[in-house]
Specification:
The protein is an all-alpha fold. The protein has a domain at 83-222. Helix content is 71%, strand content 0%. It has 10 helices and no strands. Helix 1 (29-48) packs across helix 2 (55-62) and helix 7 packs antiparallel against helix 9 (172-188). The chain is elongated, with a radius of gyration of 21 Å. Mean pLDDT is 81; it is low at 1-26 and 212-223.
Length: 223
């Protein structure tokens, strides 16, 4: 859910009443229309908050008619739900795009850290939190749970390398939770030293891995 200034297109939604808000195969113009509506939604939420958003304002900013709007969203609540899903999906996709090109475990781990660090420091998540705090905190809650699963998938080869180095199985869920909690806490309560960011967590994790590796080696030598 990268909260960047430009909203990335999401799969087109079925007309309201047909399949609810279930995404269907993107179909060119429909995808562009949905993307325009979501981009307008983001601008209005950042400016007015989620409570004061109006369908008319969204339509005017997106350049679509109310009839067109209701082909994809049945209500304001459904629009805000779709916008939240879109932001979470954008975050997950951007994270995967940043990490996937790197096969070597250390490079892969650092790619994830750079992405998370950049998201916390330069994304629009903090702006959204200021404009619509309750809405954004609910979004963060869903993002947290989804990210635990996704980070563990992306970091599987990294954890395998750590396990081989330590001689024990890393608590993967705990490491993933630590990283995503660090990012979200940075957004809610910014660090007084922004240059540190997620790097502090990285240093901590590496210190654990190095210490664990030395302890495992010492235990093997004593046997």
């Amino acid at each position: 859910m990268e909260l960047e200034s430009a909203v990335n297109p999401m799969p087109a939604l079925a007309p309201a009443g047909a399949h609810g808000s279930t995404p269907v195969k993107a179909m060119g113009r429909a995808e562009a229309t949905v993307a325009a509506i979501l981009a307008a939604t983001e601008q209005i939420v950042l400016r007015e908050g989620s409570e004061r958003i109006s369908i008319l304002d969204v339509c005017q900013l997106a350049g679509v008619s109310r009839g067109t709007f209701y082909r994809y969203f049945s209500s304001q609540d459904e629009l805000l739900d779709a916008f939240a899903r879109h932001k979470r999906a954008s975050f997950q996709q951007a994270m995967a795009d940043a990490v996937t090109p790197h096969a070597e475990p250390a490079a892969r781990f650092h790619a994830l850290v750079r992405y998370l660090d950049n998201y916390a420091a330069h994304g629009q998540a903090r702006l959204l939190l200021g404009a619509a705090p309750e809405y954004t905190l609910r979004l963060f809650g869903r993002l947290f749970n989804e990210s635990l699963v996704r980070i563990e998938e992306l970091m599987r080869s990294v954890f395998d390398a750590w396990d081989a180095r330590l001689g024990i199985r890393t608590d993967r869920e705990l490491v993933c939770e630590l990283m995503i909690r660090c990012v979200l806490s940075e957004l809610v309560v910014p660090n007084k030293r922004p240059q540190d960011g997620v790097q502090r967590i990285v240093t901590f994790l590496y210190s654990i891995v190095d210490c664990g590796a030395r302890t495992a080696l010492q235990n093997q030598l004593q046997k």
